[in-house]
Amino acid sequence: MRILHLDSGRELRGGQWQALRLHGGLIAAGHESLLLAREGSPLLDAARERNLPCEVLRPLRVPMQSRRFDIVHAHDARSHTLGALFARVPLVVSRRVAFPVRDSAASRWKYGRADLFIAVSRFVAQQLRRAGVDEARIAVVYDGVPVPSEPARGEAILVPSTDDPQKGMDLAEKAAARAGATLQRSTNLEADLPHARALVYLSRSEGLGSGILLAMAYGCTVIASDVGGIPELIEDGVNGILVPNDVEAIAGAFRRINGELGRAARQTVAARFTEERMVKATLAAYERVLADG
After folding, report:
1. List of residues 6+ apart from 186 with CB closer than 8 A
2. What does the buried/exposed string (b/e) look like for 48-62 if buried means 16 or more CB atoms within 10 Å of the residue's CB?
């Protein structure tokens, strides 16, 4: 199979990591895959560092480039627009965000152009159905992350460092102060998780949370907001801790951090959320589109 990936993101966030892992996994499985990404973006740099086929995303070249492929896969909102305008083969769109689809003529046109939406969680799939997307055009494919050979060994309690007002870093810091705990801000979870024992991941809106999965893969206890698709990853008291976005509740969760939850989290990822499972499920979605075509 031949797949052309589009991603216009300026940062290397969860969606870009998934595009990169999918791209590499497809090539390893023997498929032809090419990633088009924004010039100067961390995603393009990361693909080049891994010697993965990649080029600068130039919108006006997409129509001609797409004709060489079986599928165009758009990984972010702007790429969805580019795919809707310029793809000359079936268009697959990843939908990762939890907020409702905008109700406008332009949005209805754009969402009508995709042959299939890959929703990152059942919660996101429900938002698509509410927007009028037919069930036949939705597939749920969860994120996949690598499972390290060894679990994390450290004492740090991490919180992702972000300026995004939808993320609850302010809540995490207030709750930590209330609980007498020390938080370490992380701008690179990949580098910091091996030295951690917990991750505090709070959000006011979340499609899934690939950072949560990465921490679970390392065997860290995750304290996370009970919103969006997060409860599809974490069962409170079984493989992590779910909390309302309330300072007192979050402060109390710090006392529940323990190794048993982390070990169960690591087992959950190994059983359900590996890169290999994500690649296999995405390929099945592609095959569905081509069979319908």
Report:
1. 158, 159, 160, 161, 192, 193
2. eeeebebeebeeeeb
3-state secondary structure of 200: strand
Alpha-carbon span 254 to 241, nearest angstrom: 9
Domain boundaries, the chain: 2-142+274-292, 156-272
Q: How far apart are CA 54 and CA 19, in angstroms?
A: 12
Residues 110-167: pLDDT tens digits? 999 999 999 999 999 999 999 999 999 999 999 999 999 999 999 999 999 988 877 8
Instruction: For residue 139, give the H/E element and its range.
Output: strand 138-140
State the CATH architecture for 156-272.
Answer: 3-Layer(aba) Sandwich (3.40)
Residue type at 127 in one-letter notation:
Q
- The H or E element containing residue 253 is helix 247-253
Contact 138, 128 (CB under 8 A): yes
Homologous superfamily of 2-142+274-292: Glycogen Phosphorylase B; (3.40.50.2000)
CB 242 within 8 A of CB 230: yes
In sequence order, the β-bridge partners of residue 236 are 240
Please tell me the distance from the alpha carbon of residue 234 to that of residue 178, in angstroms, as a whole number. Answer: 24
The answer to whether the 2-142+274-292 and 156-272 domains have the same CATH topology is: yes
pLDDT along the chain (293 residues), means of 10: 97 94 98 98 98 97 97 97 97 94 90 97 96 96 96 95 84 94 93 96 94 97 97 98 97 96 98 97 97 81
Q: How far apart, in whole angstroms, are the C-alpha atoms of residue 229 and residue 209?
A: 8
